[in-house]
Design a protein that fits this description.
It contains 13 helices and 6 strands. By secondary structure, it is of the alpha+beta class. A 6-stranded antiparallel sheet has the order 1-2-3-4-5-6, with no helix packed on it. The radius of gyration is 32 Å and the shape is elongated. The two termini are about 25 Å apart. The relative contact order is 0.11. The C terminus is likely disordered.
Length: about 400
């Protein structure tokens, strides 16, 4: 690459990193961590667990934001270079449209390769680990059954209250077991701690009372220095975690286990997700082409390119939404999977024709009529415009 191309490549790369980082951080803080916060904060998990879950959610968010981010980076960086007359000077020195756009396209190809790696390996591995971490946090015995200073009602009729907790140790425990309405049992203990009995979770209570209310209305009280309360019936100890579409690697999406109920019922959705993993990286190239055409794909204008950039932004948004819609429809109709590939290919083909092929054909037609073609290979500039540009470099800013 020439010096100008390296300079433009660095500018677009810096802008892309800033946009992806900023948008990913906003998405994590506002939307992506809502369910994580509900699970982890409510179960009093550590800050390290919260940060680890945030890190694991990042690859999926970056994968969603990458195409739009590269469009914004390309349009913004090119617009700055055009406003400062850098692209005008480069084109006046003989650089073609392809030479000016090649740094952006090279970055788009690199972003597509990175995006493909995220989709195929990083994102499913992180999503799988995130689901396991959330499942562990939600089923952790010490955090899900007893909470300091709060009455907690659990499934199957267990109500607990703890005066204070410190790890697995509890001071002043109240527990009510109402599974059997004919024989409701209440436990009161000065201290207790969480442990296991024969591989099953249990509360070991010290200086405790067991009060049983019989159906006749009689109250039986049994005091002991140490007694267990088995908790196996109240704890969800299911170790299996259902892997959803985002948690699966590519072979698991294209070749699901049809003997599994979930896979069999969602085979088309899994297939659509697999094709989306392969097709979405192509959107990076399509969006980069849109960003290039938004700034360089028209006649030179001293008034700037705000209108062209706004139109291209609307087209980019529609293309991204159409890609989401194609993936959703493919989950119901597998024939729609082809649309996921055709959409970015059509965008790239159309802009390539308008931006690269048509100017070459136009110059050849002009040359074939007996006159030399124009020397400028970028956006077409008339003679007076070029003359005024040479007289005043400050003019023509976007």
């Amino acid at each position: 690459m020439s010096g100008f191309q390296r300079y433009l490549f660095r500018n677009v790369l810096r802008t892309l990193i800033a946009i992806v980082g900023g948008l990913a951080l906003i998405a994590i803080l506002t939307q992506g961590l809502s369910q994580i916060e509900d699970t982890i904060v409510q179960n009093r998990s550590s800050m390290l667990t919260f940060l680890w879950a945030s890190l694991l959610a990042t690859p999926q968010i970056i994968s969603l934001l990458m195409p739009i981010a590269i469009f914004i980076a390309a349009a913004a960086a090119l617009n700055v270079s055009h406003r400062e007359n850098e692209i005008v000077v480069a084109q006046a020195s003989g650089m073609s449209n392809w030479q000016v756009a090649s740094p952006v396209l090279r970055l788009a190809v690199l972003a597509s390769i990175l995006h493909l790696g995220l989709n195929l390996w990083v994102q499913p591995a992180a999503s799988r680990e995130l689901r396991t971490a959330l499942s562990s946090a939600s089923t952790d015995l010490a955090t899900s059954l007893v909470r300091e200073g709060t009455f907690m009602t659990h499934r199957d009729g267990l109500t607990t209250f703890a005066g204070s907790t410190e790890g697995a140790d509890i001071t002043f425990l109240f527990a009510n077991d109402s599974r059997n309405p004919r024989s409701e049992v209440t436990y009161i203990a000065k201290t207790a701690f969480l442990s296991e009995l024969e591989g099953k979770p249990a509360l070991i209570m010290r200086d405790s009372q067991r009060q049983t209310l019989r159906q006749t209305g009689a109250l039986e009280v049994f005091a002991s220095t140490q007694s267990p309360l088995e908790l196996g019936a109240f704890v969800n100890d299911q170790k299996a975690v259902i892997l959803e579409e985002s948690d699966r690697f590519l072979p698991e999406l294209f070749y699901p286990d049809m003997t599994n109920y979930y896979d069999n019922a969602n085979a088309d959705m899994l297939l659509a997700e697999g094709h989306a993993r392969l097709a979405t990286p192509l959107l990076n190239i399509a969006m980069a082409m849109l960003g290039i055409y938004a700034v360089l794909g028209g006649d030179f204008s001293r008034r700037g390119y705000a209108r062209r950039i706004a139109i291209a932004s609307g087209v980019a948004l529609m293309v991204r939404l159409a890609a989401f819609g194609a993936t959703s429809e493919a989950g119901r109709d597998p024939d729609m999977n082809a649309v996921q590939y055709l959409l970015p290919v059509i965008v790239v083909a159309m802009i390539s024709w308008l931006f690269f092929v048509q100017p070459i054909l136009k110059r050849r037609r002009i040359g074939g009529r007996g006159g030399p073609g124009p020397q400028m290979t970028g956006p077409q500039m008339s003679g007076p415009q070029m003359g005024s540009q040479a007289r005043s470099p400050a003019m023509g800013t976007a």
